[in-house]
Each structure stands twice: as structure tokens, then as C-alpha cells.
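TASK: fixed-backbone design
INPUT:
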């Protein structure tokens, strides 16, 4: 009984020692879950910030493109104005030269005298006035032409100054927007790096959780094995004790039988001797009593104990390039797709993503797709090989509307 009680106590102690590390490590697994949840929330927040930054980048690039278009239009107008100024100056010079030649000819040929003569040769006052009016009109016409050309030149000069001022302002605005775009690009790069770091951390936590779960499963299996072995050992010891007790009982019964038979034989011999003594009448009847002694032997039993070894489980250890490409469309709303890209971007938070062939466009690049806008090259696909991209849309209807088309892709960074 003492041995059985000792076996039960030893089993309980062994079970406690084996199970305690499991409870302790369960806290470690809970801590890993908390860390994973915190990093996931942070990644979702970063994804939202990336989408906002991407929207800002699209707006800034749109403004830059609009300003560049205005600059181009203004340059065309400015060039046209300069050409008109040059042409007007040439007309003025030609008109001045012509007037000078006429005056020179008039002085040489006596045109003034002819004009006076023509007036004097008038038949009557009406003809005189008509001839004088005609000469005045000719002179005024020449003066008006020269004056109008001068006014046109002044207007063109003012227009040129206004256009140059507008050009300078547009250039300054373009530089300012480009500077803001560079800042947004840097912000996008930092956010993408944070998202990538969080992805690495989540992968490490996932691996640590798998290792921890495997270790706990191994410890539980080891504890069950130890408890089973202790139970089997206690049962074996009990059976051995019962067997030893039975052997001792059987041996004692056999010895008692032998003592009984010896006593019966001695009693028969004494009866025969008594009969012989009675025949001799001269002797007094006597009886002899004999004491039978019996010896008992005690048997000893030996018990062997076995030790178990605990085993611990092993733990596993912008280039600015422009490309002409074919574009298709996909959506995370389709049942066959997931919400996360190959870079870990949540498409519900960041829908402005395209799938690319990484050998053509590196993952993580910022690109501009004609008709689509600024997007991140953040996904891949089995059918996306070579000069093919897949533009993501939030709904299937947008995908159908986009269809398949040829686009111009500019790698920004």
C-alpha cells in the first residue's frame, strides 16, 4: 500500500512539473497575439495614409500637368506675338521707307509744285475742293497707317510683357508643385518602408507562433506520455505485489498441509506402540505425546523502478521610363480574389494598385498610367507577364467598363 501511494504522489508531481511550462508559455503565445494585433492595426492605418498620400500625389501631378499645358499654350501664344511684333515692325519700316521715298521723289520732281498746279488748274471751285480733299485723304491715310501700325506694335509689346509675366508665374507655380510632389514621394516611400517593415514583423511573429504551438503540443504529448507511463508503472507494481502475496499464501498453505500429514503419521505410530504396551499387563499404560513444530518462511520481493527521459521538440529553425503596355482590370470584390496584394497592401484601404511583371516594372514602384492615374506597382499575377499590367478597381462594374486597352505607363520612382 505504501508503494502504491508513493507511485500516485510521484505521478502527480511529474504531471505538475511537465504542465507548468505549458501554462507559462501560453502567456507568451498570448503576448505574440497582442503584438500581431497591434502591428496589424498599425499596418491598416499606414495603408490608409498611403491612400491619402496617393490621392494627394495624383492631385499634384494633375495640377503640374495642367500648368505644363498652360505653359505650352502660353509659349505658343508668346511665340506668335513675337512673330506678329516682328512683322509689324517690318511693316512700319517698309511704310516709313515708302513715305521717305515719296517725299524724296516729291522734292526731286517738284511734286509740291505739281500739286499746287493741279489745284490751280481746277475748272471751278467744286473741282478745286475735290482735288484738295483727295490730297488730304491720301496724306491722312498714310499717317493713319503709320499710326495704326505704331499702336498695333505697342499693343503687341504690352501683350508680350503680359505673356512673359504669365509664363514666369506659371514656371514658378510648376516648380512649387514639383517640390511638393517630391515631398509627397518621399512621404510615400517612408510609408511603404514602414508597411514593408510591419510585414516582416508579422511574418516573424507568425513563425514564432507556429514554433510556440509546436513546442506546446510536444510538451503536452510528453506530459501525456509521462502520465501514461506512471499509471502503467503503478499498475505493474500493484499486480506484482498481488502476485507476491498470492505466492506467499500458497506456500504457507502447503507448509500447513505437510505439518498436518506429519502429525497424523506420528499419531498412528503412537497408537501402535500403545497397543504393544497394553499387551504386557505388567507395565502401566503410558501415553506419549509428541509436539509437532512447524516452521514458516517468509518470502521477499524485489521491485524495480524505471526512469523516463523528457525530450524537447526541435524548433525549426524612378527611372522615368515610359512603356506602351496592354492593360486589363481586376477587383478584390470578385470572390476569386483576396483583399491583400503580394506586397501586403490591403486593397480595401488602397485601391489604387496595379499588378505587374516584376522583371519589367519593379514591385513598389510608383507609376502613372494613362486614363488611370498615379498608382503603386504592388501586386503580381500568373497571367501578368511581359508588357501587361492589371489595374485594380473597387467594383466589378468599373473593371467591365475599363475592359482591355493599350496604355502608356511612366515609371515615376
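OUTPUT:
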Amino acid at each position: 500500500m505504501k508503494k502504491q501511494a508513493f507511485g500516485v504522489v510521484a505521478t502527480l508531481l511529474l504531471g505538475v512539473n511537465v504542465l507548468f511550462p505549458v501554462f507559462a508559455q501560453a502567456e507568451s503565445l498570448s503576448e505574440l497575439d497582442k503584438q500581431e494585433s497591434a502591428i496589424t492595426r498599425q499596418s491598416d492605418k499606414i495603408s490608409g495614409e498611403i491612400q491619402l498620400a496617393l490621392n494627394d500625389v495624383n492631385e499634384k501631378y494633375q495640377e503640374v500637368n495642367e500648368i505644363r499645358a498652360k505653359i505650352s499654350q502660353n509659349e505658343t501664344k508668346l511665340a506668335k506675338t513675337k512673330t506678329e511684333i516682328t512683322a509689324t515692325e517690318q511693316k512700319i519700316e517698309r511704310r516709313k521707307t515708302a513715305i521717305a521715298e515719296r517725299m524724296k521723289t516729291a522734292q526731286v520732281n517738284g511734286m509740291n509744285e505739281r500739286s499746287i498746279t493741279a489745284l490751280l488748274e481746277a475748272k471751278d471751285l467744286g473741282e478745286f475742293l475735290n482735288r484738295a480733299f483727295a490730297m488730304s485723304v491720301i496724306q491722312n491715310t498714310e499717317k493713319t497707317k503709320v499710326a495704326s501700325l505704331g499702336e498695333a506694335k505697342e499693343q503687341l509689346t504690352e501683350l508680350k510683357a503680359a505673356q512673359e509675366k504669365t509664363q514666369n508665374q506659371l514656371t514658378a507655380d510648376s516648380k512649387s508643385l514639383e517640390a511638393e510632389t517630391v515631398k509627397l514621394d518621399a512621404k510615400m516611400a517612408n510609408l511603404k518602408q514602414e508597411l514593408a517593415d510591419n510585414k516582416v514583423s508579422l511574418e516573424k511573429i507568425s513563425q514564432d507562433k507556429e514554433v510556440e504551438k509546436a513546442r506546446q503540443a510536444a510538451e503536452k504529448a510528453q506530459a501525456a506520455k509521462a502520465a501514461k507511463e506512471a499509471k502503467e508503472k503503478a499498475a505493474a507494481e500493484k499486480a506484482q505485489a498481488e502476485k507476491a502475496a498470492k505466492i506467499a499464501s500458497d506456500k504457507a498453505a502447503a507448509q500447513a498441509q505437510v505439518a498436518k500429514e506429519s502429525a497424523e503419521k506420528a499419531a498412528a505410530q503412537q497408537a501402535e506402540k500403545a497397543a504393544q504396551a497394553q499387551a504386557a499387563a505388567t507395565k502401566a499404560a503410558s501415553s506419549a505425546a509428541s509436539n509437532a513444530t512447524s516452521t514458516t518462511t517468509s518470502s521477499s520481493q524485489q521491485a524495480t523502478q524505471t526512469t523516463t527521459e523528457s525530450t524537447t521538440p526541435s524548433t525549426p529553425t524612378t527611372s522615368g521610363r515610359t512603356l506602351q503596355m496592354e492593360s486589363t482590370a481586376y477587383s478584390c470584390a470578385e470572390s476569386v480574389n483576396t483583399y491583400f496584394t503580394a506586397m501586403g497592401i490591403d486593397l480595401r484601404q488602397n485601391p489604387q494598385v496595379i499588378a505587374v511583371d516584376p522583371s519589367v516594372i519593379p514591385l513598389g514602384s510608383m507609376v502613372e498610367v494613362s486614363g488611370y492615374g498615379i498608382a503603386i506597382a504592388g501586386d503580381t499575377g500568373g497571367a501578368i507577364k511581359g508588357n501587361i499590367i492589371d489595374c485594380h478597381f473597387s467594383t466589378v462594374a468599373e473593371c467591365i467598363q475599363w475592359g482591355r486597352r493599350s496604355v502608356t505607363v511612366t515609371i515615376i520612382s
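COMMENT: The radius of gyration is 59 Å.
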